[in-house]
Amino acid sequence: MQLHPTSLPAGRLGDDALRFVDWLAEAGQSWWQMLPLGPPDRARSPYKSASAFAAWRGLLSDPAAPVSDDEIDAFRMRESFWIGDWERVAGGRRAVADQVRFAREWDALRRYARERGVGLIGDVPIYVAPGSADHRAWPALFRSGEVAGAPPDALSERGQLWGNPLYDWPALQRRDYHWWTERLRRTFALFDVTRIDHFRGFVAYWAVPEDASDARGGHWRRGPGRAVFDAAARSLGPLPVIAEDLGVITAPVTRLRRSLGFPGMVVMQFGFDPDDPRGPHRLENHEHDSVVYTGTHDTDTLRGWWSALPAATRRAAEAQFAAADVVEPEPWWSTIRLAYSSPARLAMIQAQDVLGLGGEARMNVPGRATGSWRWRMAPGALTPELAKRLRAATEESGRS
Hints:
Elements: H1 15-26, E1 31-33, H2 69-78, H3 83-90, H4 93-115, E2 119-124, H5 133-137, E3 142-150, E4 160-167, H6 169-174, H7 178-190, E5 193-196, E6 204-209, E7 219-222, H8 227-236, E8 241-243, H9 251-260, E9 264-267, E10 290-293, H10 302-307, H11 311-323, H12 331-340, E11 346-348, H13 351-355, H14 384-396
Parallel strand pairs: 1-2, 2-5, 5-8, 9-10, 10-11
Antiparallel strand pairs: 3-4, 3-6, 6-7
């Protein structure tokens, strides 16, 4: 199940996180997927963090817990690649002490989850934030004159202007992609598996002039391909990665993903267009080498999505529910069960969809500067009855 810690009732680690693990185990679920854990930006987005390595102090359940000098020294030694950069940006000893506190709380959560058969899945944004600790500490690893974005498409005639600094991939190559290896090392120290956002950018990425007002004037530049992952694997061993390959995906992107052995993503909400019978998100086109999601942090909840569906798309979805014998009184539960029937190796659902919440519980609206990343679950919302219902659906599909 996907749920960011900020969406727990208290919005942080501690007892709420442990109780959520208990509920997952009771519901027969094996994975808890989160969004990035770094300090979010002013809009609360975890995808534009002040650090690609540091965890956010706001996630701590006990931000005043005592920390000894020995613990700080040991952390500095263990995380020497990045902690000095973060310390200079975030405030000296206190910044390190917060990372020690986070390590304590996180290690306790991870042990607790493992004991109950629940693995943790993280999320790595491909880019760092402008002005972040990483951007300041490693300026030679980033291009100047252009920033990240996405080209115009059916959803946005002006494209998307993200504004993140772009990597100077030849400069990274000369350093054997060491920065990326250390970033993944840190990620796998925290998570059992990680999703890498915007995977297609490793094949080709959209570069926009830094003074542009929108992304229409951008152009494609070639990415590093598999070299960055080969370098990381030489140091870290096999890489447990889910490749976020959503959007307009070319054959070279699919070849790269498959050559690396990374599962891709399919999303149920994208799979019912009657005019797109060959789309990869349609259930009959799903492959085992993928992870099926009911929705993502960028889409509406299932209930909100369903309420806005055109009649033809709704009829197409209902026909699939009936064909798979997963008709439920609530269409969001039908969609959950349909996802579970997929041949994809893993099915991931969002907590909002199990709860049957509408668009008010949506995590993010892409392109909107305010109002996102704020949803928080009500205390006690995930009941024993919901756990029993989800376990039954999981067992019926053979995914338990």
